[in-house]
UniProtKB/TrEMBL annotation:
SUPFAM superfamilies: Nucleotide-diphospho-sugar transferases. This is Glycosyltransferase family 2 protein. Pathway: Cell wall biogenesis; cell wall polysaccharide biosynthesis. Gene3D superfamilies: Spore Coat Polysaccharide Biosynthesis Protein SpsA, Chain A. The keyword Coiled coil does not apply. Belongs to the glycosyltransferase 2 family. Pfam families: Glycos_transf_2. GO terms for molecular function: glycosyltransferase activity. Keywords: Glycosyltransferase, Transferase. PANTHER family: GALACTOFURANOSYLTRANSFERASE GLFT2, RHAMNOSYLTRANSFERASE WBBL. The keyword tRNA processing does not apply. InterPro entries: Glyco_trans_2-like, Nucleotide-diphossugar_trans.
Amino acid sequence: MNKHIAGIVLYNPDIPRLQENIESIYKQVEQVILIDNGSKNIKEIKFLINRFEKLTLIENKQNKGIATALNQIVNYSMNCNFNWVLLLDQDSVSPLNIIDEFDRYTCTDEKVAIICPEINDRNSVQVSNSNNIEEYEYVKECITSGSFLNCSIWYEIGGFDEKMFIDYVDIEYCKRVIRAGFKILKVNRVELLHEIGKRNTYKFLWLNVPTYEHSAFRKYYITRNTLYFTRKYKEDENILYAYLKVIKRLIIVVLYEKDKWKKINAMYRGMRDSYKMI
């Protein structure tokens, strides 16, 4: 019988939502590892987790980014002799059968690096695709939260890219998985309740333009990492298309969003700093 572990990355989490997250996965695994990235509400976090026995908290005194925290989780899991680890964001709620369902596929193909669920966005009005007639399918990428990660393959391809800090971390890892000849398997009947972000739709001429409104902090990393990722994989990616995406986001900021100058400045710095990363 396989042992199971789950890892959750924390940064100023909403405590009731975090409790819901922990309770949804706690009975499905032998251990839960929490990596805190310098949360201001660390006392409330500790008060909550003291109610649970098999939780381990590792505190980073400052925000080291999502990539570093994910690498800490997988390193810890390997040191404790776990072969697979379930990665979760702090606002995700797992179905009660996620581990049992994923476990069915861990031995079917030695090339599977990630097993992932259908994502059900809390803020979306769209109906999920859980009625897909296929039991599972192979995909080219998935988000980090809800992904069941093969620790040995993570080690083989070099873990998550810590230069990225946040944004595109999951996409970049998936790119390396596929390029190395491994696979990402999506189980269509497993749904993860996850909050992707606040989505807005703006009217531009005759078009409805959907977008997620982010802070200047996030605008910087999204811009920087979009261009860094495209240059890093220039054999597969289109740099012109990447710049067009950045320009589109910039136009939306100028026309519709608050804190325009902060965000424009952040995006400019992101473009500039992307050249320093390669």
